[in-house]
Amino acid sequence: MNTYPDKISDIAALEDLLSLPTEASVKMCSELEGDIMFLGIGGKIGPTLARMTRRACDKAGLEKRIYGVSLFESDELRKQIEDMGIETIHGDLLDTGFIQSLPKAKNVFFLAGMKFGSEENISLTWAVNSYMPALVADHFKESRIVAFSTGCVYPLVPVESGGSLESDPPEPLGEYAQSCLGRERMFEYGSKKYQTKVCVIRLNYSVELRYGVLLDIASKVKNQEAIDLSMGYFNVIWQGDVNDMVLRSLELCDSPAKILNITGEEILSVREVALEFGKLLQVTPEFAGKEANTALLNNAGLAFRLFGHPQLKSRQLIKWIADWISDGGETLGKPTHYEVRDGKY
Q1: What is the mean pLDDT of residues 202-209?
Q2: 0.90 cut: is pTM over it?
């Protein structure tokens, strides 16, 4: 069990915590055969997940090649990833020729996806979220693949239900969520056609200090913006816990594809979280609307039985984030749009 500080003061300390491997992830890596590739490494989760993998392999005494594939938003990001001991490959995963040029690593993590602004470019959203996975499933047919999806493929459910289970039928609302289900179906198709071992991760919502639902609420409290209560409840999970569970999901890959929900243990109230931020930031929150009796919620009981419970609770995360924004900490400026109820992101 890792221990955590009372406060996180800078990005270096934050990223160190997000990529700190557990004993379980080190043990898994010590038994892992083959090299590792991260497709879409340049997003919000990729760099710290890859770094955790590198650290776990190093701690296990393994000399594995780890690749990071992305268009890379900047040379600085690419250098940061290379400094972790990751071999970077620059290219467009929608380019079939580029896909076919990639080394066929034994273990593949698929992190690419489009959400923000998806309503403004529906065709690109479908290409990235459904067509690209088909290309990946075909090229890496002999690999084990852990593919990120989203809890948005589930319908809104009553809060008292405890959240959607992996056995519940998906009912995606809006074209973003539909395209994400398309992503899952392409990996499922490849898994059945080629007997590729796959694990599909339905995640909502990963949080850290620079982005996520908790930061969205905290920022609105601090700026005295009205907080929409119509999506009145939500799940979150610390990104460090996400990284650990996703890394260890390599062991779950199977054919037909395995589905796994990943989220936190708690169903949180937007109102109560805002009030807690209000106390810490010494601001009275402003609200608009009222809570509906349904929300987008996942139940990650299966993941907890397989991997154990998340190490961090929401109370610690709320305190960290309150301190972070009070001190003017850097944020990514990418709202989650957690309040959306019509699927239009």
Answers
A1: 96
A2: yes
